[in-house]
Amino acid sequence: MTQFTLRPAVSDDASGINAIYNPFIRDSAATFETVEQSEAERRCWLEDHLGDPRYPVIIAADPESRILGFASASAFDPRAAYGTSVKVSAFVAPQGQGMGLGKALYKALFEVLCGADIHRAYALIVAPNPASVALHEGFGFAHVATLSEVGRKFGRFHDVMWFEKRL
Ligand SMILES: CC(C)(COP(=O)(O)OP(=O)(O)OC[C@H]1O[C@@H](n2cnc3c(N)ncnc32)[C@H](O)[C@@H]1OP(=O)(O)O)[C@@H](O)C(=O)NCCC(=O)NCCS
Questions:
Q1: Residue 94 pLDDT
Q2: Number of the ligand 1 atom closest to the C-alpha atom of 126
Q3: Is residue 138 included in any domain, yes or no?
């Protein structure tokens, strides 16, 4: 069992988050981003989130303070009427997957979201992704739609499953 602690992110976590997330950009269709984030871009992203209880970012770190994974909620859409909805996701380093970090990160994330003015949370899961589906179903998300071949990465089209949680 991997030992880890959870804490809210700070802006100095930019490079640690990128160390987890950029390999998924590079090597995986789990995110549809295709260009790795710079530290400055990630710091901006973090600063947009910090201080707004609707947009928590939770870090899981090992006993040496190395980041093992993170979960976040982001604006669903910039238009104001969507302000009560968020998109959520979690990314765990390959060596930490399947050991409960995703669940622990989401438990902490939803503790914050439950105290915020959020009515719906959405997860956009590139198919297939059984670990992510299990994680989201375990937190009460229901599959509401699949968009077929809505994105193309690494030269092939991918379906995206939309999951919804009512808060
Ligand atoms: C998806 C992800 C965040 C889940 O985090 P995790 O720490 O690996 O998952 P956990 O150990 O907390 O397990 C969560 C659930 O998924 C299940 N699970 C974990 N790995 C699995 C796998 N490979 N296949 C099927 N189910 C799996 C667990 O059994 C658990 O379900 P349960 O509560 O019904 O037992 C993580 O695997 C990951 O970062 N994957 C790559 C990036 C990614 O796809 N992110 C999601 C984008 S939407």
A1: 96
A2: 48
A3: no
